[in-house]
# Entry
Amino acid sequence: MNKKLTIYRTLLTLAVFLALVPCSHAKLSVVCTTADFGAIARDIGGDLVAVSVLAKPTEDPHFVDAKPSYISKLARADVLIEGGAELETGWLPPLIDGSRNTKIESGKPSHVMCAEGLALLEVPTTLDRSQGDIHAMGNPHFMTDPLNARYAAQRIAAAFSAVDAQNSAAYRQKLEVFLQRVDKKLPEWKKQMEPFQGRRVVAYHNSWLYFANRFGVKIDLFLEPKPGIPPTPAHLAEVMTTMKTDNITVIIIEPYENRKTAEAVSAKTGASLVNFSQYPGGIKDADGYIELIDTLVNTLAAALKTSGASKEYPK
Amino acid sequence: MSEAFQIMMWPLLACLLLPGLLVYLGLHIVRREIIFVDLALAQVAALGICMAILLGHDAHDWQTTAWSGGFTFAGAALLTLTRPSGKRVPQEALIGIVYVVAAAASFLLLSRSPEGNEELRRTLVGEILLVQPGEVLRTFAMFTAIGIVHLIFRRKFWLLSFAPEQGESEGLRLWLWDFLFYVLFGIAVTSFVRMGGVLLVFSYLIIPAVCANIFATTMRTRLAVGWVVATLSSVAGLYASYRLDLPTGAAIVCALGLALLLTSSVRIFHNSK
# Structure
């Protein structure tokens, strides 16, 4: 009796497995380095793709700890999507080597570099490590500008169509939907930020340059003395002096940055601390890319409004 | 399963080929009661790496290896000079001081360097999962060379650790052999630290040796027990890391810890019978 049950169970498992095999094959297996690409890939691929993201949205994208599952995901990937602006350069190449998946090697069409062809900002004239953790190709946090995300979405859709040609019409159609959503939202976001043109904001790390340029604010004062170097007391004192003289009232902080430092500066200067994230899922109620920018613009505008009105420092 | 093997093959080879020498060296270290000497030397080597990084070299440049080697050499010299002559200052205290100061100095150096925290963490937990085939083979060649030196002079090294008084009465120049021991030891530890990190090196050195001391009395049987423990724990740790998606180095360290727990329970159970 027992034996019979085991046989049935085995057969059932086998049947379920066989039923699942075709559809898992039909879906394009997509691996993204960070959650911003992940969200856009899901928007464009819909049910046709299975997306997995390596770095957690709350994890520092400069440093990601390797785990065996990352290699097996890459080994099975049909498409790999990364920024391609040296943000992932410290951890992605050895993982690709380890996966031994020749499809997603650097330079192959299945290896999408979203920044390729994009004019990045702050390209250093000389490469010198004394300047901190700088990237030869320029500031790699380009996805904080919705127009760059628009460009990335086009590259992702093109790669999906190239790898999975029979569904290219579907990808193109979903891409159009995404682009239209961005185009509709962008003027609204700009309007929300309109009253705060030229206002300065403090960040922990220089990851908001593109966002700031798009929306007319200046995010050019950092708690880090140089990119990647932890705050020092002398530098923080300097930052706080500048905050007072320039009447800077908002500090933005990301999940993986040292919140205690930001809290101390906020307590001493009275500036308000705003939760920011470059990645969908890194802050509450923002699981898609457009929802993320929406939340960022809303919270930043609100913080600038409330904190700017109450204080007038004499120059 | 073939995928598991494909992913874990080089880490597995590294964990099967390399601990052989570490287990043997560990028996010396445990016998000499200088347990933390490997942590100290590994940290001194890491300090050399930090120095090279601060000077603008990449972690894989030959200059980095040279800096790290030079620091290890200096550390070995320092430890030779501190071989206990009297009981007033125990050597363990000096070893601890070397470790702490080297660690603090690395911290100071890397506070001026981007990615400093990441480098520091890497020296601690290593990247055994992403180990490069060339690195494994190079290190294995170096370990084999060190092993051969130890094999040729095995009696002298044995006297040095297990019966220094007898060695001295036989005219063995202890300081010279001590220095050679520390230099070879430093090279072995340093090259493994760059792959596996300080925690894994410490575990491979000490845990199999302690398990061996529980069960065996002669050098040969101790080596055999140590190698079996190291091999089984490596395989178990790698398997757990793959199945449960855990950081690989830390999983092996915990597997070794579990192995010690098992062997000591067996021993206690055996004794109480």
Remarks:
- Chain B has one domain: 2-272.
- Chain B touches chain A at residues 3, 6-8, 56, 111-118, 127, 129-130, 132, 241-242, 245-248 (CB under 8 Å).
- Chain B has a mean pLDDT of 87.
- The radius of gyration of chain B is 19 Å.
